[in-house]
Specification:
The complex is a heterodimer of chains A (241) and B (309). Chain A contains 9 helices and 10 strands. Chain A has 241 residues and is α/β, with parallel strands linked by helices. In chain A, 44% of the residues are buried. Chain B contains 4 helices and 21 strands. The relative contact order of chain B is 0.09.
């Protein structure tokens, strides 16, 4: 479904971040991309979404070359992205943001269903502004809900676990699994989190701007234990990895 | 301008169709004179003896009623000046709707200056909605709206002002002054958009004179194209009080905003805060909405709409 061919990207200062990276993402699959911090995971996501333009290589969606398409064009092709650091808007409400994500109007029931998936009560949140009054965890959940509102072909979640409490996390995992079982969209989740790795169909380890390992969950997950001491494991979640 | 077009202009200012259907107290001012008026048992609209404007007297204890006094100028070379005084009786809880629409064609000019004073009785409450619009041609017009609002809040009262002027007015000078007694609260939300060569100046001066008094002043503005805005605010705390003002402005194109907020604390228990931010729309906000499939222009429009709501 998505093909990345020999992708290169360097910082404006000329530091190479992605180095000749190639990757194929299949239909309706849940792929988790993991790897050490600074390895190029978020850059890779931004290149797929069109937020960054690669200096070399090509990107194909269902066989169509989308390398030259901008962010808007790729979004209209069904590529969605949940930012690692969500953006805040003075004045726009949660309801507004979800509607902008959906591309149409949403009933209160639909808003409620979306927010429930990320562990938020619609009554408390739908009319709140997406501004600095929301905590890091709240805004992160709203960001994920705004992406779930979209009719996507490919969804990329960039560290969705950050700021999410354990109770909500179960709901989030369920949302990822529901999306997988609906066979409507492929998912790429950038994560270090054990429970997310456990629901992956496939795990890709990105290190130094390249694919270091790539295989089924059964194949890759056990190998991650050998790198427990490396930055792959963050905070106390690192023990299992 | 036909009666139907007048209604359209009034509807832009004051949801006129809704007001008509609800048969609330109202007065319509058109081209410098009243053309329709209705009082109710609790809300009396009385012309001033010198003909300079209206006294709107709201009986003590009136709850849930509305009064609307929109004005429109639909002829060129009108210079309309009106003095309206609102007396909100003790314990009343009402909604007051005002505003002005100017409709003139290319090359024409018209001015409206509404001087409104609010006398809020003890423990009374009012929501004041004011909208200013300009319609018609855009070339070489001079639509001027210069409102002056003075508010006097007695103990325990609360006035919530929501004012907006979203484009179409070539020049405006807005002056708002308030005096707030013990336990009273003044809430002001201003929404301002200028475009083209428009000029807008807005000035607030609020004095907190009683213990427990409060003001919350939020001004959000957008200056587009070559337009220019000036913002001045002064909150004076003379008692144990809380004052908060927030001035947020977005500039696009060659828009300019000049903001000067001021706080003056004359009591050691006065707690006064000011926040101000002026800048262009953050690139990441536009990018976020573009990941929803919006173009850059659509994203900018949505961000501004939300910001000014």
């Amino acid at each position: 479904m998505l093909t990345l061919n020999h992708i290169n990207w360097s910082t404006p200062e000329g530091v190479p971040i992605l180095r000749d990276l190639s990757l194929e993402i299949g239909d309706n699959a849940l792929t988790v991309i993991t790897g050490p911090n600074g390895g190029g995971k978020t850059t890779l996501a931004k290149v797929i979404v069109g937020l960054l333009r690669p200096s070399g290589g090509s990107i194909l969606l269902d066989g169509e070359d989308i390398t030259e398409l901008d962010v808007t064009g790729r979004a209209r092709k069904g590529i969605s992205y949940a930012f690692q650091q969500p953006v805040r808007f003075k004045g726009l409400t949660v309801h507004d943001l979800l509607e902008l994500g959906s591309g149409g109007t949403l009933s209160d029931t639909q808003v409620c269903a979306l927010l429930s998936k990320v562990g938020l009560c619609a009554r408390d949140y739908k009319d709140r502004e997406v501004n600095a009054s929301l905590s890091g965890g709240e805004i992160k959940r709203i960001e994920i809900a705004s992406v779930l509102a979209r009719d996507s072909r490919l969804v990329i979640f960039d560290e969705p676990e950050a700021g999410i409490d354990l109770w909500s996390f179960s709901g989030l995992i369920q949302a990822f699994e529901e999306m997988k079982n609906s066979h409507k969209a492929s998912q790429i989740i950038i994560s270090h989190q054990e429970r997310i790795l456990e629901v992956a169909d496939r795990i890709v380890v990105v290190e130094n701007g390249k694919v270091a390992r790539d295989g089924s969950r059964e194949e890759i997950l056990p190998t991650l234990t050998s790198v427990a001491a490396c930055p792959i494991g963050r905070d106390n979640l690192g023990e299992r990895l | 301008m036909s009666e139907n077009e007048n209604d359209k202009l009034l509807d832009l200012i004051a949801n006129w169709n809704e007001i008509k259907a609800s048969s609330c107290a109202h007065n319509i001012r058109q081209n410098g004179r009243s053309v329709e008026r209705m009082s109710t048992e609790n809300i009396q609209i009385i012309p001033k003896e010198d003909g300079s404007g209206l006294d709107i007297r709201i009986a003590a204890g009136t709850k849930g009623e509305k009064v609307a006094i929109p004005a429109c100028v639909t002829a060129a070379n009108i210079d309309d000046l009106v003095y309206n005084d609102f007396y909100v009786g003790e314990g009343a809880d009402v909604t007051i709707i005002a505003g002005c629409g100017i409709h003139v064609h290319n090359g024409e000019e018209a001015r409206h200056s509404g001087i409104h004073r609010f006398f809020m009785g003890r423990d009374s409450k009012a929501v004041y909605l004011e909208k200013h619009v300009g319609t018609g041609g855009r070339r070489d017009t001079k639509r001027v709206i210069d409102p002056v609002t003075e508010v006097y809040l007695e103990e325990g009262s609360c006035l919530e002002m929501d004012t907006s002027q979203i484009g179409g007015v070539d020049s405006t000078k807005r002056i708002t002054k308030g005096s707030v007694k013990a336990g009273a609260k003044l809430i002001i939300k201003e929404h301002l958009l200028t475009e083209g060569e428009e000029r807008a100046s807005t000035s607030f001066q609020v004095t907190l004179d009683g213990d427990g008094s409060a003001v919350d002043l939020v001004s959000r503005s957008v200056a587009k194209d070559h337009s220019y805005q000036e913002y001045r605010s002064e909150i004076v705390g003379n008692a144990v009080c809380t004052g908060h003002s927030e001035c947020d402005a977005i500039i696009t194109g060659s828009g300019r905003v000049n903001a000067s907020p001021a706080l003056y604390a004359a009591n050691e228990d006065a707690s006064l805060i000011h926040e101000a931010a002026i800048g262009k729309i953050a690139g990441e906000q536009i990018m976020k909405l573009r990941t929803f499939g919006l173009t850059e222009e659509e994203a900018e429009q949505k961000i501004i709409e939300g910001f000014l709501r």
